[in-house]
Amino acid sequence: MEFSGLNTMWTLVAAALVFFMQAGFAMVETGFTRAKNAGNIIMKNLMDYAIGTPLYWLVGFGIMFGGSGLLAGGFDPLVRGDYSAILPSGIPLPVFLVFQTVFCATAATIVSGAMAERTKFLAYCLYSAAISLIIYPISGHWIWGGGWLAQLGFHDFAGSTAVHMVGGVAALIGAKILGPRIGKYNKDGTPNAFPGHSLTLGALGVFILWFCWFGFNGGSTVSMEGDAIVSAGHIFVTTNLAAAVATVTVMIFTWLRYKKPDVSMTLNGSLAGLVAITAGCDMVSPAGAAVIGIIAGFAVVFSIEFIDKKLKIDDPVGAIGVHGVCGALGTLLVGLFSTSGGLLYGHGFKLLGIQALGVVSVAAWVAVTMSVLFWVLKKTVGLRATAEEEIKGLDITEHGLVSSYADFMPTAAGALLSAPALGAGQPGEVEIIRRELAVPSGESKDDAVISKVSILFNPAHLERMKQCMNNVGITGMTVTNVMGCGLQKGRTDYYRGIKIEALDLLPKLQMDIVVTSVPVETVIKTAEEVLRTGHIGDGKIFVYTVKDVVKISTGERGYAAMQGTDV
Predict the structure, then answer these.
(1) How far is 250 from 196, CA to CA, in rounded Å?
(2) Which residue of 17, 47, 155, 420 shows the fewest CB atoms closer than 10 Å?
(3) In angstroms, rounded to a whole number, what is the distance separating the alpha carbons of residues 444 and 396?
(4) What are the pLDDT digits (tens) for 23-45?
(5) Are 162 and 363 in contact (CB under 8 A)?
(6) Distance CA 284, CA 275 (A)
(7) How many domains does the chain have?
(8) In Å, how far from its chain's centre is CA 391?
(9) In this structure, what is the dihedral angle of CA atoms 413, 418, 423, 425, given to the nearest 10 degrees?
(10) Residue 225 forms part of a structural domain
(11) 3-state secondary structure 71-127
C-alpha cells in the first residue's frame, strides 16, 4: 500500500485531539461533583485510558477489526496480523491503531461520571478494563469492523452509538446497581441537589470537549484527499452548528422552566448536541444539524430530570442523558435527516429501521454484559465504597489525599488579593481613621474587660474586613471557612431542575477577634459598615465575654497576654 503523508498527519492530529478529550471529561466530572472526590475522579480518568490502551492493543483491536465475522473479528494479540483489507487509504496500521485506541478510551471514561463519588477505585479499574478488552470491541466490530450491522447498512459515522451510547448504557446499569449517593433522596423519594464544587472546571471541560470534537468527528474521515476535503469541512459545520443550537435551546428552555438559565444544564446541552450529531454529521445538511441540536436540547433536559426524579437513578454529571439518550437519539435521527437515505427526504423507512435495530441491539449487548460484570464485581471485590468512606470523600479514603486543593482553597478571598488597599479618604470606601490605643477611661489594666467578637459574613468581603479592622487597631484575628444559614434557611434556587430550599448551607467565613483596648462597639460598627448591604445574608455578629487569656510563650494572663499580638 502506498502511504499518504497528508492522510496520515490528519489522522494523527485527530487522534491527539480525541485523546485530549480525556482532559475534558475529567474537568466536567470533577467540576460537577464535590471537592472531596476531585482527586479520585482525576485518577479514574487517567487510569481508564492507561489501562485500556495496552488491553485494546493486546486483544480489543483484534476482536474489532481482525476478521469479517458477523459477531466478532478475531483473536490477534499484539496486533500482528494483516489488516490491509480494512485500513483506510494511505493510512499505516500503527496510525489506525492509535486512532481507534483513543475512541475506545472515550467509551470507557463516560461511565465514570454517572458512578462518581461512591465507587471503589479497584472496581472502577476492573470494569474499565473489561469495557476496553471485550465489551466495546464486540459492538464496535458490528458497526465499524464489518460485522452484521455494517453489512445491513447501519450508519454511525463517528460513534453516537458505537462510543457514546455504549458508555451511556454502561453508566445507566452501573448507577442503578450502585445506588444513589447518601442523602440524595428523601424518604418520600424527592431528590436533593448536590451542586458541583466548581462550575468553572465544568465549563473548561465542555470547551475542551467541543474543541476536541472537531477531531472526533472531522478526523473520522481518516483522509484529507479528494472528496474527503469537502466532507471534512461539512462535518465541522454540522458538528459546530448542532452543538451551538443545542446550547441555546437548553439555555432558553431552562430559563423558562426554572425562571433562570441553568448553567450546568446548559453545559450539558452543549455536549448533548455534540453527541447527537456524531452519527450523522457527514450525511445531514446544516439545517438538519440545527434541528438535531434543538431536539437534543429538549431531550437532555427531560431525560436528566426523568432519570433523577422518576427512575431515582443518581447520575452526578448527567452522563446517562447526554451520552446514552442523546447517543441513541442522534443515531435514530440519521434515519430521518440523512440527505441520501432519510425518511424526510423521501427515501422511506428502511434506514430508520436499520438504525433502530442497531440502537436496540447494541444497548441490549451492553446492558446484559455490564449487568453480569457489575454483579460479579459486587460479589467479589465490592463495587461501592462504605458509607464512612463516602462521607469522608474518596480522595482521603481511596488515595490518602487530604485535599485536591491543599494550597488553593476554593474561597472567594483569593480573587481579591490584588484589590487596592482601603483607607481613610478613598472615595466610596469605608473611612475609618486609626485611633489612639489606650485602656478605656476609668479602667485599669487589671480590670479591663476582654471580649470576643465573632463575625459571620460572605467570603467576598474578607479583604475589606481585614484592611478596615487593621485601620482601627485590630492586628490579630482567626478566620475559618464554615457552612451555614440563618432564619431564611438559605435561598431557594434550582440546580439541574431540582429545587434547593431545605436548610441550604451556604459558604461563609467566621472571623474571631479578641479585643481589650479597642472598644467592642468600634469593632461592631466597623464590621457593619463593611458588610451591610441591606439584603438577607449579610451575616451576624456575636459578642462574648472572655474569662481569661493565657499567653503560652510567656505565661502572661489577662490584659498583659493580649499585648504585642492583639489589642
Answers:
(1) 19
(2) 420
(3) 51
(4) 999 999 999 999 999 999 999 99
(5) no
(6) 14
(7) 2
(8) 19
(9) -130
(10) no
(11) CCCCCCCCCCCCCCCCCCCCCCHHHHHHHHHHHHHHHHHHHHHHCCCCECHHHHHHH
C-alpha 300/C-alpha 254 separation (Å) is: 11
Residue (of 554, 341, 308, 567) closest to 440 by Cα position: 567
Q: Are 442 and 556 in contact (CB under 8 A)?
A: no
Sorted by sequence, the CB contacts under 8 Å of residue 563 that are 6+ apart come out as: 556
272's CB contacts (< 8 A; 6+ apart) are 246, 250, 296, 297, 299, 300, 321, 322, 326
Q: Please tell me the distance from the alpha carbon of residue 565 to that of residue 117, in angstroms, as a whole number.
A: 43
pLDDT of residue 410: 43
Q: pLDDT tens digit string along 113-137?
A: 999 999 999 999 999 999 999 999 9
The residue type of 560 is A
Q: Is the residue at 418 inside a domain?
A: yes
Rounded to whole angstroms, the Cα distance separating 362 from 360 reads 6
The answer to whether 366 and 174 are in contact (CB under 8 A) is: no
Of 360, 377, 399, the residue at which a domain comes to its end is: 399
Contact present, 362 and 165 (Cβ < 8 Å): yes
Residues 261 and 178 in one domain: yes
Give the separation between CA 274 and CA 279, rounded to whole angstroms: 10
Going by their DSSP bridges, the two strands 493-495 and 498-500 should be labelled as antiparallel
Q: Which domain holds residue 205?
A: 5-217+230-399
Phi-psi region of 496 (alpha: psi -120 to 50; beta: other; left: phi over 0): left
In sequence order, the 6+-apart residues with CB closer than 8 A to the CB of 58 are 77, 78
